[in-house]
Structure formats: C-alpha cells, structure tokens
Amino acid sequence: MLYNRVSYFIDLETRMTLKSYLALITLSTITLIVLAVGVVLGYSLQKSYLDSISQRGLELGRVIAHNEKIIQAVELSNQGKPNDIQDYIEMLRAQTDASYIVVVNKNSIRLSHPEPEKVGKRFVGDDIYQALNQGKDYTKVAVGTLGQAIRNSVTIRNDDQIIGAISIGYLSQPTSELIFKHLQEAGLLVGFVYFLGIIIAGFLILKLKRTFLSLEPEEIVQKFKEHELILDSIRDGIVAIDHEQNITAINSMAIEWLTMNVLNAPQVVGKPLSEQSQSLSHFALEAQGQITQNRFNLGKLEFIATLYPIKIQKGDIGYVIVFFPDHGEKSLEQELTATKNYADLLRAKTHEYANHLNVLSGMLQAEHYDDAIEFLQQESDGDQVALGRIIKTIENSAVAGLIFAKHNKAKDLKVDMLIESDCQLGRYPSKTNEALVTLVGNLIDNALLAAWSNRLLTSPFVKLYISDRNAHIMIQIEDSGAGVDEKLENRILDFGVSSKHNTEQNGIGLYLVKKVVDQYHGSLDWERSEVNTTVFSIYLDKRALIK
C-alpha cells in the first residue's frame, strides 16, 4: 500500500507541467504570505483594540475618581454612614460603553453594581487590591460575578489618602463581537488581495508559457543539448555575437580554428570577438545589418566568412558568423607540394642513415671492430655532451626532454644549438610544466627556423638560457635569423600573423606563447642585438606558476 502511494506521487510529479509547477508554487507562496499577513494583522488589530479599551477604561475611571459626589459617598461609607450613589453610577455607565462601573470603599465593599442586590457585598477578584493597597491603576482580564471581562481598577484619593477604588469593566463577549467585526473587515481586504494575487499570478504563468513556446523545462534543456550537439557536429566554424560584439555562442570547430584549442567555450563566451579575430570583428562593424560575405586569413589558410544579422531587443543587431576554409586549387597544390617536400626530406634522412648502417656493417664484416666502435663513438659523442649538460643544469624532466629533442632537431637542420652552462630549472607541478614546455618549445622552433632560413648569410645558431634562481623564471632564446619584419612588429603575437614565407600553417607559435605569458601575468619582449641576432626574453613570476 505504501509502495503504491509513493509510486502515485512520483508519477504525479513526473506528469506535472511547467504551468502546474508555477501555479502550485505561486499559489503556495501567495497563500503563505496572505496567511502570515492575516495572522499578524489580526493579532495587531486585536491588541490595538484591547489596548484602546483598557486606556479608555482607565481614563473614565480617573474622571469618576475625581468626582466630588463619589468622593463624599466613599468617605461616608468608610465612616459607616449610609450613602446612595447606585443610581448616579448607573446613570454615568449608561452614558458610556462600559459593561459595568463598581465603586468600593477602602474595605472593598461595593457601593454600586449593575445588579442592585450585590451592593454592600465584598468585591470579587484580587485585582482591586492593587488599587486599594498600593495605589496603582491596573488593567487585567479576570472573571467576576458578571463573567470574564477587561477590568480597569483606579484608585480614589482624598487629600492624597486612598479611600476606595473604582472598577470599570468591559465584558469579553461584547468586546469579542466588536473585534470579530473589525477582523471581518480586515479579512475581506486580505481576501481581495489574495484573489488579486491569484489573478496576477495566472497572467504571469500564461505569459511565461508563451515566452517558453509552451515547452517544459526538460524539453528546454533537451533542446539546448540538441542544438549544442548539432553545432559541434557542423564542420564549419559558427560564432554568434550580440550588438556589442560579445560572443554569445560558439561551436567546437570555431574554437579550434580561432584559438587552436588553447581556450574552451566557457572562456570565450561573453568576451569580445576582437580578442579572437580582429578581421571578423571588422566585418561585423561593416555589415550594417546586411547579409555579407568576406575573406580573411588564419595563418596561411584563407577563410570565407558569411555574416547573418539577427534582430535582438531594442532594435539592436547581432550576427551569426559562419566561416570555413577556402580549399581552392592553389591551396590543394600548396598542400601537395608541402607533403612532397616532407616525403623528400624523409627519403634523404633514410638514405643518410642507410649509408651509416652500410659503413657500420662493412666494418663489422671486415672484423674492424675498433673502427666500428670509434665510428659509433663519433656519432654519439655530440649527443652525450649535450645530454650531460642538460641533465646537470635542468632538473625539470619535462623541459629537459624537450630541450634534448630540439637539440637533435637542430642537429638535423645543421644548426648549432648552444645551451648556456649556468642554466638552472627546478621541478614544478605538471600544469606548470605544460606551460614551460609550450613556451620553450615554440620559442626554440621559431629560433631554429629563423636561423636556418638565414643560413646563407651567416652561420646558423641558436642559444638558450633558462634560470629560476630568483623570484622569476627567465627564458631567453637568441638566434642568428634575420629578425622580425618591421611591418609585423605590432602584430607578430596575433593569431595567424607570421614572418615566414612557406606553405605551412604559421602564426601560431608566438600566439600560444603570448597566451601562456598573459595567463601567468608575465612579460614577453624581443630585440635586435648589436651582433645582428634576435633575442626573445620571457619573465614569469614563480608565485603565479605554483598556485
């Protein structure tokens, strides 16, 4: 039975629509608020009314207590002499809304009462004694001969002497009826507010329903997931921007082309488009709300971008930008040439190593073992010297392995790679190692290519210095290349900008370096030295790297 009830409520919850949820939540909230306001209002109204009755009773009692006729009658009663103020008191009571007015002498003997047969008898209740004995005016809800009432006791004085007291009462039943009447009026007001709140909530729910296109929350989430999967499955780059050119949506292909996957979508969304592509940002400025198509370059690849305007709030215009690489005949020819050149290079290297193996094989077959050992030693001495120097100075295994690999690459390119003897780099967390590998690897690659490209004018070399002895990590790469073109000096760190003139996709290395330097709040600079070499210098704060 319990299982069936639980299943019923689970099924009920799954069947509830957005409209039902909103109606239930809104109705519950309004009900709780109205109930709370009603309770507070009722309590405040009742307390205010009772306080008003008490204050009115005390004031009436003080007026009667100063009446000379009352004072004289009480004095006579205290002296045992006859007096008659019953009719006079009843006349006063009839002129007020008091339920009863009872006058007593200092012995609490009644001198007046709504029921004449109780005159001359002792007052019922102990609240009158605070007025008789202590001279204090006092209010209390108590039960007397006429029933429960709000009783106000006031002292009667003559020449500052307490001679009696007056009790003015308001019976609970008539008082409750009056309070209930006021509460009914307040209840009608609260009910009207409650009804009005339900009507307003109903209009809001209908408005939200139209705004959400009658979709349920689960359906909305599903739609977002579907749209995200569809966008990421499209092989074109897609970027949506608002009227301020802030990115509002972007697919994975656009992330790959614009940032080389250095950043992810959450890091790009909400940021200006100009941070990722100045060209696309200019296209959006020039579009003026029209469908336009333009060409731009990312590295050596040419892209075609189409801008589709979208109307957003207040008449502003955003854009959906779709872009893709223009794989024309020239581009395919360049790719084929680059592949052919790479294949030729591999054949040359294979031929070179085959010659070395043939020489070694001939020496071994001729039993010239000493000559074979000497031949192998010559081949490995250079690598052993470089490896020994790296191991002694660079404790960071990730960076050390990278530098040794680049040393072998420099050897293949016939470029001398010099590693300063006073280098030093300690161990760091894996995330820091990734950043250092990105910095050192891209700078060395650029330096090797620059030195190799200028080999006909000067002997190619690359010099590396890296140190973390102080509060900063310093990385310095010097090469014998021709330097940075003056036309590109201000844009050399932008994505896709390169001084290289070959068929490869360039303009990425220094862009990645700049991203890492900015991430760790470092500095990057380059200069042309007096001996016509190019020096790139990077400074990173070690505290930022180990956080």
Describe the secondary-structure layout.
Layout: H1 2-15, H2 18-65, H3 68-78, H4 86-94, E1 100-105, H5 128-133, E2 138-144, E3 147-158, E4 161-171, H6 172-211, H7 217-233, E5 237-241, E6 247-250, H8 252-259, H9 265-268, H10 278-287, E7 292-298, E8 301-311, E9 317-325, H11 329-365, H12 369-393, H13 397-412, E10 416-419, H14 430-453, E11 461-467, E12 472-479, H15 509-519, E13 523-528, E14 534-541, H16 542-545
Helix pairs in contact: 2-6, 12-13, 13-14, 14-15
Describe the structure.
The chain is α+β, with helices and mostly antiparallel strands and 547 residues long. The protein is built from 16 helices and 14 strands. It has helices spanning 2-15, 18-65, 68-78, 86-94, 128-133, 172-211, 217-233, 252-259, 265-268, 278-287, 329-365, 369-393, 397-412, 430-453, 509-519, 542-545, and strands at residues 100-105, 138-144, 147-158, 161-171, 237-241, 247-250, 292-298, 301-311, 317-325, 416-419, 461-467, 472-479, 523-528, 534-541. Strands 6-5-9-8-7 form a five-stranded antiparallel beta sheet. Strands 10-11-12-14-13 form a five-stranded mixed beta sheet. The protein has a four-stranded antiparallel beta sheet with strand order 1-4-3-2. It is elongated and about 160 Å long. The relative contact order is 0.05.
Structural class: alpha+beta
Give the helices and strands as they follow along the chain.
HHHHEHEEEHHEEHHHEEEHHHEHEEHEEH
Sheet of most strands? 5 strands, antiparallel
Report mean pLDDT, rounded to a whole number: 76
Number of helices: 16
Tell the overall outline.
elongated
Q: State Rg.
A: 49 Å
Portion of residues in beta strands equals 15-25%
Q: Describe the strand arrangement of the main beta sheet, using strand numbers.
A: 6-5-9-8-7
The helix content is 40-55%
| Number of distinct beta strands | 14
Low-confidence stretches: 1-14, 501-507
> Roughly how many Å apart are the termini?
57 Å
